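Much of our argument rests on the idea that a fold can be written as discrete symbols. In the encoding step, the backbone of a single protein was reduced to a row of integers, each denoting a local shape. This step matters because it turns folding into a mapping between discrete strings. For completeness, the protein is quoted in full, as a sequence line and a line of structure tokens:
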Amino acid sequence: MRASQPSRTIAGTALAGLVWGGAVRQVGHGAVHPAPGTGAVELFLIEGAALAAVFVTVALVMTRPALGALIPAVIGVGVGVVIATLGTVTGASINPARALGPALLSGTYEHFWNYMIAPLAAPALVGLAHRALRGRRAAAPSPAEA
């Protein structure tokens, strides 16, 4: 049986604690947290917008079959850019499983809901926006009909 990503994250965090002990506890088991002064709404919007930007970029590449081989690189670069630019501002979790294990083992729950919900809401909103835009284009009369 294959373990789920959240259970692997919890197990990995626990294993790190067993191997490195005090050093892992000293950094809060790697729990994600925003920079001081970053509010909950700001955190939610930044984390969500960053992941939405990655999703939109990947979706644009996916719509061009000739670029299909670039999809893994686009994902990697997108995630890397988010981490590099937002790591010190929001913690740049962008993955609920990444935040779960460290939060559970460190007891750090102050912004936990943001790290759980923003990465789920962002792609859903991107999908809804795409559906709405596609529906608008389908309903709009073509220039030949106008």
